[in-house]
Amino acid sequence: MKRTSLTLMTAGLLTGSLVLFSATGCETTQRAERETASMDDSHSAIESSTVTMVVHGMGCPLCANNVDRQLKAMEGVRDASIDLGSGEVKVQLADENRPTRAQLARAIQDSGFTLTRIETP
């Protein structure tokens, strides 16, 4: 009887923690500054079919999922892959309606993270 109560209480605490964690974000996200790196030609469409963005503050799969959803919802973005270890976000762009650097930067900022730089090949 005691073991069942303890198991149910533990499950309830874990569920509550997960709900709280997903609602507030990880501590790394909360501490990340919300400034965006200045970039040349930030309002021109990106000419390259791929970009690599270095993003500060992503520390967990929920963080990566948030960035992934923001980017994939943008017009002109085909796919995004995120490496949590390096903070690199590789984005494949469509042939038409490619976003600007400013639009990509805004998506990262709206995700709650800090864009360090955007690199194009």
Please give the structural blueprint.
Layout: H1 2-24, H2 27-31, E1 50-56, H3 61-72, E2 77-83, E3 88-93, H4 101-110, E4 114-119
Question: How many E strands?
Answer: 4
Instruction: State the shape.
Output: globular
Averaged pLDDT, please?
A: 78
Radius of gyration: 18 Å
Can you walk through the features of this model?
With 121 residues, the protein is α+β, with helices and mostly antiparallel strands. It has a single domain (28-119), classed as Alpha-Beta Plaits. The model is unreliable at 8-24 and 27-40 (pLDDT under 50). It is globular, with a radius of gyration of 18 Å. It is built from 4 helices and 4 strands. A 4-stranded antiparallel sheet has the order 2-3-1-4, covered by helices on one side.
Summary keywords:
single chain, four-stranded antiparallel sheet, 4 helices, about 120 residues, Alpha-Beta Plaits
Outline of the structure:
The protein has 121 residues and is of the alpha+beta class. Helices cover 41% and strands 21% of the residues.
